[in-house]
Amino acid sequence: MTAPSATVENFRAIDVIRKKRDGRELSSAEIGALVRAYTDGKVPDYQVAAWLMAAVLRGMSRAETAALTDAMLHSGEVLDLSFLPVNKVDKHSTGGVGDKTSLVLAPLVAAAGIAVPMISGRGLGHTGGTLDKLESIPGFNVNLPLAKFRRVLETCGCAMTGQTAEIAPADRKLYALRDVTGTVESPYLICASIMSKKMAEGIDSLVLDVKTGSGAFMKTEKDAAFLAQLMVETGQRMGKNVVALLTDMDQPLGLMVGNALEVKEVIDVLRGAGPDDLRDLCIELAAWMLYLGKACSGVEEGKQQSLQLLQSGKALDKFRQMIELQSGDPRVLDDPRRLPQANHRVDVKATSSGYVSSFACEQVGTACVILGGGRERKEDSVDPAVGIVLQKKVGQPVSAGEPLATIHYNSEALAARASRLLTECIVISAERPGVNRPLVHQVIRSSGEAN
Amino acid sequence: MTAPSATVENFRAIDVIRKKRDGRELSSAEIGALVRAYTDGKVPDYQVAAWLMAAVLRGMSRAETAALTDAMLHSGEVLDLSFLPVNKVDKHSTGGVGDKTSLVLAPLVAAAGIAVPMISGRGLGHTGGTLDKLESIPGFNVNLPLAKFRRVLETCGCAMTGQTAEIAPADRKLYALRDVTGTVESPYLICASIMSKKMAEGIDSLVLDVKTGSGAFMKTEKDAAFLAQLMVETGQRMGKNVVALLTDMDQPLGLMVGNALEVKEVIDVLRGAGPDDLRDLCIELAAWMLYLGKACSGVEEGKQQSLQLLQSGKALDKFRQMIELQSGDPRVLDDPRRLPQANHRVDVKATSSGYVSSFACEQVGTACVILGGGRERKEDSVDPAVGIVLQKKVGQPVSAGEPLATIHYNSEALAARASRLLTECIVISAERPGVNRPLVHQVIRSSGEAN
User: Fold this and answer.
1) What is the pLDDT of residues B223-246, one digit of tens each?
2) Are A53 and B48 an interchain contact pair (Cβ–Cβ within 8 Å)?
3) pTM here?
4) In this structure, which topology does domain A340-429 adopt according to CATH?
C-alpha cells in the first residue's frame, strides 16, 4: 500500500489532470499528493472537478482505486480499536428502500461478542438513512464525539454514530464537489468513498450489502456486481477481510418505509418476529459478520447462532443497552407507541384484482420523501413519524378495493400525492408472477470468485 | 443558427454536465444557457471545469461546436463594419515558430482594397504572437479602443489590435479555466475559441492558416486537417466564407525568430525581398484572401496581384500608413536599425559536416523564449530585441564549424542555454534529405472537399 507520506516532487495538479485525461495510470504518490493538496485547500475545486470527470470517463485501475481510498482514509483520523480484545466487524449497505438491517445487525452481532463500530449516513433521495431512523428514538444521540463513541463501543460492543469532521475529511469535501459536478455515478469513486470511511472505523472485516434492482442505485446486477468486486478487492489490497452480498432491492425490504415505522419493524425482528425477508436478510448478513469475526466456523453455523440471539432476546437486550448509552429512551422497545406517530392514516386500495407482480421500488422511497419522511436536498429536515406500511408484497393475491398499503401522514395534500404515486408503482397483473427473485443474488469474496 | 436569446426552462448546469458526460448531444439552447450563466457568474468554475473535461473526452458534434462558437461570440460585442463599402477578410494562424505573415498580409490585402480588421493575440509557449512583434516598433499601440480600431480601419483599410474586454468575454473566461484544467487540447474547444473571436471582427470571409509539423500545436497532419475541417464547417454554419490552408511548420518560417528580428524580415518581404518560404506563403495566403474578398477571379490571379503589390511598394506604403495611425515610428521601415537591437551576437556552429536534415522546430521557439523573447507564462514580459537568425534551412549543405544560426542576446547565461538547445535541435545528416515537405499541404474549403 501507499505510505500516506509518499510525495511527488514538484507536484502540479495540472499534470495529474492531463495524465488521467489521456488515459494513463496515476501512481499512488500522485493520487496521494492530489488528495492531500485538495484537503489542505492548496488545489482549487475547479481542478479537482476536471480530474473527477476524467476519472469518471477514463475509469481507474484497481491500484488507483486503492490508492485513492487510502489517501482519503489517511486524510483524517483512523480509529485505533486495538485496546478492544475482540474482532471488529462492520456492515455497509449501498442503500435501498426499507433497508433497516443496520439497526438489527449492530446489537445482534455485538451480542455474539464481536465489536461493531458503525459510522453511518443520513437518507438522501429515495433511500433512507440509518441516522434518521435512530433519531426517531426519543433522545437518541447520533453525534457522538469519537472518545464517546469508543466508550459506548467498549461498554456494550456496538455503537452507532454519524461521520465526524475527523473521519475522512477528503471524502466529505470530494463528495460535496462530486454532487454538483455530475461525478457521483462512478463505481471507482463510489468505492473509494465508501471504503475510506469504513476503513477509518478501525475494523478487521467488513460485510458489504450491495443492493440491486429497481430500488437500488445500481439497477442492474452487472453494475452491482462490478462495484461489489471493486470494493472487495480494494478492501483486500488494504489488508481487510471483505465479503459482498448482492441482495435484492426490486421491492422494499420488509413492510415498513419511514423512520419510526422502520424502528418498530426492527424491534419486531429483534423480538424474533418481523417479516420473513427482513429477518432472513438480517440473519444472512449477521452470519457473514460472525464468520468473518471468527465467532463461528461457517456461515450456516452463524445463521443458527444469529437466530438464537434473536429468539433468546439477547440481541434486543444489547439494543436496549446501546440506546441507553446513547441517551435514547429504551421504553420504545416495550411500547413502540412511544415512537413518533403520524396523526392520520389512509389506505391505498387496489383498483383491480390479481397478483402484485412488481414494485417500482424507487418510487416507494420517493413517496416516503413526498410525505416528509426523507430528503430531496441534504439540508431538508425529516418528519420521523410519516411513512408507508405495505399490506402486500410481490406474488401475493389481491382483490379490487383491498388495501395495498397504508400511508401514515401529517399532511392531506402530501398524502394525496404519495397515494397517487403508490397506486402507479405497485403493479397488479392477472397472472401469478413467476419465480420470486432470490433475496441474495451472489456472494463475492475475492478476485473473480463468486458463489 | 441559435438565436442568442434562446432559453432553457429551469436551466441547471448539473443537467448539462450529466448529459455531456453520458455522451448525449446538447441542444443549442442548453449550450447557450451554460455559456451565458458562466459569463454572468451564475455558474461556478468547478461546474464548467467538469463540463469542459466531459466535452474534451466525449467530443462535440458539429452542431454543438457551432452553438458553442455562437454563444461565445454573442457573449460580447460583434463589430458592425457595414458602414465600410468593401469586403472584409481576415486571416488567422494556429501559431508557429517565425510565423510573421499577419504583419505582411494586413497591409498587402488592404492595398488591394479589402478591409482587414485584425484582432490578434500575444505569444505563449514556443509560438510568437503578432501583438508582441508589432510592439517592437517604437510607439506602436496595440491596445486600440474599438472606436479607434474602426477609425484606423476606415482610414487605411487595415488595423491590428489586441482582444478587448468587449470581444467574446466568454472566451476569455473559458480559456483561463481551460488553461488550468487540462482542457486546452480539444479541437472542438480550440475551434470555438478561435472562431468566436474571428466572427466578432465583423468579417465576411476568413482564411485559416492551420500549421502542422514539429513546431505546430497540431504535430500530425491528421489532427491539423481535423481542426481545419471543423473550423471551415463552423464558419459555414455561421454564414461565412472560410478556407483553411494546412501549411508546413516542420522548420521555422523564414530565417528570423524573435520580435524585432521578425519585423525586420517582414519589411524585407514588403520590399519584394525576404526568404522564399515566407514570401511564397504570404503570397499564397494573400491570394486566398483576395479571392474570398472578390478582388480577383481566381487564386492564381490573386498571387500575381499580391506579387505586384509587394514589388510596387504599395503594400509597404499601406504598412507605413497603419504604423502612423497606430502611433508607431514609421522610420523603422527605412532604417530597421531603429528597431530594438540586442547587445550581443554569437553563432551556433555545426559540429559535423553534411546536410541540415530536420529541425526540432518547437525547440527553436523555446530557445527564443529562453533568451527572453517569448513567454512561459501569460504574465511574463518579453525582450523585443533578442532572437535567432537561422543561417541554414532544411536541405542545405553545411561544413563542421560553419554557423547554423546566430543568437541575438542580452544575457550570456541565457545565450549559453539557448545555444545548447539549438545545437540539439538542428539535425545534420551525412545524406542529403529527400524531397522537401511542401509549403502548403492541403486546402480545405468545405465539407469533405480538400484539394
Assistant:
1) 999 999 999 999 999 999 999 999
2) no
3) 0.89
4) Aldehyde Oxidoreductase; domain 3 (3.90.1170)
